[in-house]
Amino acid sequence: MAVLLRNPKISIKSFSSCISRNFSGTTLNSEIDLKVPSFLSKNSLLRRQETKEGNVQWVFLGCPGVGKGTYASRLSIFLGVPHIATGDLVREELNSSGPLASQLKEIVNQGKLVSDEIIISLLSKRLEAGEAKGESGFILDGFPRTISQAEILEGVTDIDLVVNLKLQKEALLAKCLGRRICIECGRNYNVACIDIKGENGNPGIYMDPLPAPPQCVPKLIQRADDTEEVVKERLRIYDEMSQPVEEFYRSRGKLLEFDLPGGIPESWPKLLEALNLDHEDKCSAVA
Ligand code: AMP
């Protein structure tokens, strides 16, 4: 693989305990390096990745439906690091019989954001469980989603790279409405065929549906928050609460902007290229 990965500055365990401690308002662990990086161009950002050893600590940003989960999970297999999606953690909790379940269901089904306190607690638990299994490095998907979450994260560890996936709003809505999930294997599929013509100098986009294999077809469900009304609210909240996070990382020279050129067959090789990852491994690493 072309990218040499780096040793994380702190272990996942100390990350998870620091993240909880920092959130509860006490001081940061002094052993953590809080350096703010100087501005780096896209190319120097990627050159920086090449010189590292250890595991990546990456974040995926982007509007609901853009495909963060799809590309983050593929990359996690490719790079051998866990893909941690806070939306999955929230859904696991709301489907459990835990004390937060009904409160979370109400918030998520209205398209609102869960409180930072709950998200940090779910993320800390997930990181601790990973640490116990020997995991290191991560690709975070859906976190941070607010400036305060980004500040907390910055206070406890050094994020190497933030990938900002971009797609036009019309396609995002269609992708969310067409999304189907297999309740057994958890994989995401899509019934939407997106064909948006370019106009007024804006490029068009074509995305084939992503059909489920026969064994998943009888087990497909739609997310309760993938209705038109709720998706529009989630997109509005993204613009209000999460878009500023893009600028947070842009100003620190960590943001890699990636406009999706189409569906997975067109986008995956281009994303690997943009990340300066070795194309030779891409077919064998990801089914
Ligand atoms: P997602 O699967 O990323 O679309 O997340 C589903 C829902 O989980 C979101 O609409 C929020 O209600 C909640 N959620 C996930 N991640 C976060 C986060 N970092 N902060 C607040 N709420 C979140």
UniProtKB/TrEMBL annotation:
This is adenylate kinase. It is an enzyme of class 2 (transferase). Its EC number is 2.7.4.3. Keywords: Kinase, Nucleotide-binding, Transferase. One of its GO terms (molecular function) is AMP kinase activity. It comes from Salix koriyanagi. It holds the Pfam family ADK. The keyword Kinase applies. It catalyses: AMP + ATP = 2 ADP. Belongs to the adenylate kinase family.
